[in-house]
Specification:
Blueprint (H helix, E strand, L loop, with lengths): L8 H13 L14 E5 L2 H11 L3 E5 L14 H9 L2 E4 L5 H10 L4 E3 L1 H4 L19 H6 L9 H18 L4 H25 L7 E6 L3 H6 L3 E6 L9 H14 L3 E4 L6 H10 L2 E4 L15 H16 L3
Parallel strand pairs: 1-2, 1-3, 3-4, 5-6, 5-7, 7-8
Helix pairs in contact: 1-2, 1-8, 2-7, 2-8, 3-4, 7-8, 8-12, 10-11
Length: 315
């Protein structure tokens, strides 16, 4: 990670069919196969583009499976794909290399989804600093949390924005985009309902994660997130922070320390061993790994819900 911001199983089959089959006429000029060339910066946006775009689009994602998106560096080939795309869907300030490439090569094609996500300052520590050096509270308060996709409601707003953008770029495919977006939004609405009901009655409301990616989710569903590290998933937390987290785990009888797929679980496992609790995966869904390559945003979010329910003793 570079300094600063460098950076439901049910219904899923129907959505996949829509994404593959699509509807409406062929897309306006783009790739040689008659599809609209769309580049997305990382997995949550790729899933939207592929699902809403269906067979009217040819989607390329810049963050390959197994790559931590915050650390993305672009190859010349990827910069070339940005320059020739009809639409580049990205989140400004999340991946500076993408921001720079769009600014230099795709000003007209670039589509920043951050306004649609309505990012907020959640109080999480999203700036990288030296071990043991505290981040000024005033700076924390101003840092916008980029992890909108872990809140289904915010994610739905971005789906709508991408739908509208696809229609504006390829009006001939409007009917298909609208149909597929409607189907996806229905599944996201169902996911939101499952989270609201599934987390409504829990013995615990606090959960501990390896980095602070889940603030929007916590706020939406009445939970409290405790992050071991800040924005940088693989950052080494200061000893004082580890001690603070251990004290919280003991005081609140937290049962599980969550870590994620794309970074080492070493710190989470160390804390869990020291205080005698379990570890489990809570996916930030920033990218797919070999272990979850057949999953989708929807299935991963549903798995996260089950992990939270188990860890927090939800009825």
């Amino acid at each position: 990670m570079r300094s600063g911001l460098r950076a439901i199983v049910a219904g899923a089959g129907a959505l996949a069919a829509l994404a593959l089959a699509g509807c409406g006429g062929p897309a306006a000029d783009g790739s040689g196969n008659g599809r609209l060339d769309v580049v997305t910066s990382f997995y949550p946006l790729e899933f939207i583009a592929r699902t809403v775009g269906g067979d009217a689009v040819n989607v390329t994602t810049l963050t390959a499976p197994g790559v931590e998106p915050h650390d993305l560096e672009l190859t010349p080939k990827q910069v070339g794909s940005i320059a020739t795309a009809k639409l580049v869907v990205y989140e400004k300030d999340l991946q500076p290399a993408v921001d720079e490439a769009v600014e230099q090569n795709a000003k007209d094609a670039g589509f920043d989804i951050a306004p649609a996500a309505q990012l907020e300052a959640t109080g999480a520590d999203f700036e990288e600093h030296e071990p043991g050096q505290a981040e000024p509270a005033a700076h924390k308060d101003k840092a916008l949390d980029p992890h909108f996709w872990l809140d289904p409601v915010r994610y739905g707003e971005v789906v709508k924005a991408v739908e509208e953008k696809l229609v504006s770029v390829d009006s001939a495919g409007a009917a298909g985009y609208h149909q597929r977006a409607k189907a996806l939004l229905a599944q996201i609405g169902k996911l939101d309902t499952e989270y609201r009901t599934g987390l409504a009655d829990c013995r615990l409301t606090t959960f501990v994660t390896s980095h602070q990616a889940f603030a929007y989710l916590a706020k939406r569903y009445g939970l409290t997130m405790i992050g071991i590290a800040g924005f940088t998933p693989d950052a080494e937390p200061a000893p004082a922070r580890i001690k603070e987290v251990q004290d919280i785990v003991k005081a609140q009888q937290v049962t599980t320390i969550f870590y994620e797929e794309l970074v080492s679980p070493k710190v989470a496992e160390t804390i869990a061993n020291d205080v005698g609790v379990k570890t489990a995966v809570l996916s930030p869904i920033e990218g797919l790994s070999d272990a979850n390559s057949k999953d989708t945003y929807l299935t991963l979010m549903q798995r996260n819900l089950q992990e939270l329910r188990t860890a927090n003793g939800c009825s």
